[in-house]
């Protein structure tokens, strides 16, 4: 009698496990991306970390050089933007804290153009660090985090005007939200060789916390969706909130990622910290004030 009861308990437990497992598999193997739940519509408790960067666009200070610089290093500033749109519109939309006025952005790009900068894709920077090859003397990488619609409306035409390369760090689950890009806009920009993409998780999740399964799901879903919609190989990552630790880095490396961007400031990039490359938040000031 006791044995029978024991068997029944084991049987029930196995059934629950099989069910949970198949649920997870269905989610990961889901080819029809539209069925992936939308984090903007998911309960807050499950995705508590949706408002992007908490701090507002900073006033400029000369970007410090992080020391030491071990390994193979290249001087390549990486600029970090979120929204680019007219100041008045950003005020109306409550997006002023993360906004650079589109006219100021135009002047900033014009400055880089007149100073003879070469704009690079994130891929090119990572490849040069991995292969120990050189880059044009005044190389720079321009990045836009989260995938805001204002980047398509205002920054994208300005990049095209100067024939500049831009990199979009996209949280795929946010795509289609009212202030975010649509997948059609992502696809259109992906067809333009000037625009590149990196994985910024699915729900803008800070991958320095949570279970390994959750972290992997966030990274892999972002990668799969971006690869499907952009037809680009996605093997570079950008940390939401700039949050990372050794565990996050080893999971990324297990998943085949070869480079990642943090929010640690500095103009030098080295192969010794290729999984936490440096970036600099840019606000509404001339780029010379940031030391460029
Ligand atoms: Zn972000």
Question: Topology, please?
Answer:
Blueprint lengths: L1 H28 L43 E3 L2 E4 L1 E2 L2 H6 L6 E2 L1 H13 L3 E3 L1 H10 L7 E8 L2 H14 L3 E5 L12 H8 L4 E5 L12 H19 L5 E3 L7 H9 L4 E3 L6 E3 L9 E2 L11
Parallel strand pairs: 2-6, 2-12, 3-4, 5-6, 6-7, 7-8, 9-10
Antiparallel strand pairs: 1-11
Helix pairs in contact: 3-5
Zinc ion binds next to strand 6.
Record keyword descriptors for this entry.
alpha/beta, globular, binds zinc ion, 292 residues, TIM Barrel, 8 helices, two-stranded antiparallel ribbon, 37% helix
Q: Could you write a compact summary of the structure shown?
A:
Helices cover 37% and strands 15% of the residues.
Structural notes for this entry:
- The protein has 292 residues and is of the alpha/beta class.
- It has a single domain (73-290), classed as Alpha-Beta Barrel (TIM Barrel).
- 37% of the residues lie in helices and 15% in strands.
- It contains eight helices and twelve strands.
- The strands form four sheets. Strands 2, 5, 6, 7, 8 and 12 form a six-stranded parallel β-sheet that branches. Strands 1-11 form a two-stranded antiparallel ribbon. A two-stranded parallel ribbon has the order 3-4.
- Helix 6 (183-190) links the parallel strand 7 (166-170) and strand 8.
- Mean pLDDT is 85; it is low at 15-38 and 40-54.
- The site of zinc ion has 6 residues, from strand 6.
- Zinc ion (ZN) binds next to strand 6.
């Amino acid at each position: 009698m006791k044995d029978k009861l024991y068997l029944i308990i084991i049987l029930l437990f196995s059934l629950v496990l099989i069910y949970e497992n198949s649920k997870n598999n269905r989610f990961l193997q889901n080819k029809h991306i539209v069925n992936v739940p939308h984090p903007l519509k998911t309960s807050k408790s499950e995705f508590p970390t949706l408002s992007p960067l908490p701090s507002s666009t900073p006033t400029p200070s000369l970007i410090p050089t992080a020391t030491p610089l071990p390994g193979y290093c290249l001087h390549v500033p990486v600029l970090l933007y979120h929204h680019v749109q007219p100041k008045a519109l950003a005020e109306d939309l409550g997006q002023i804290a993360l906004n650079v006025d589109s006219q100021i952005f135009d002047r900033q790009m014009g400055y880089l153009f007149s100073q003879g900068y070469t704009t690079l894709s994130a891929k090119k920077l990572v490849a040069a660090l991995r292969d120990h090859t050189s880059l044009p003397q005044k190389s720079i990488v321009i990045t836009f985090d989260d995938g805001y619609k204002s980047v398509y409306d205002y920054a994208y035409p300005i990049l095209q005007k100067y024939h500049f390369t831009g990199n979009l760090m996209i949280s795929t689950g946010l795509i289609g939200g009212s202030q975010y890009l649509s997948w059609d806009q992502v696809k259109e920009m992906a067809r333009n060789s000037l625009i590149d993409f990196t994985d910024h998780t699915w729900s803008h999740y800070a991958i320095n916390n949570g279970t390994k399964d959750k972290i992997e799901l966030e990274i892999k879903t972002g990668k799969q969706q971006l690869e499907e919609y952009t037809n680009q190989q996605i093997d570079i990552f950008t940390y939401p909130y700039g949050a990372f630790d050794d565990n996050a880095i080893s999971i990324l490396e297990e998943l085949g990622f070869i480079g990642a961007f943090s929010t640690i400031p500095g103009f030098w990039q080295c192969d010794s910290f290729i999984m936490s490359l440096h970036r600099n938040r840019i606000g509404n000031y001339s780029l010379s004030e940031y030391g460029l």
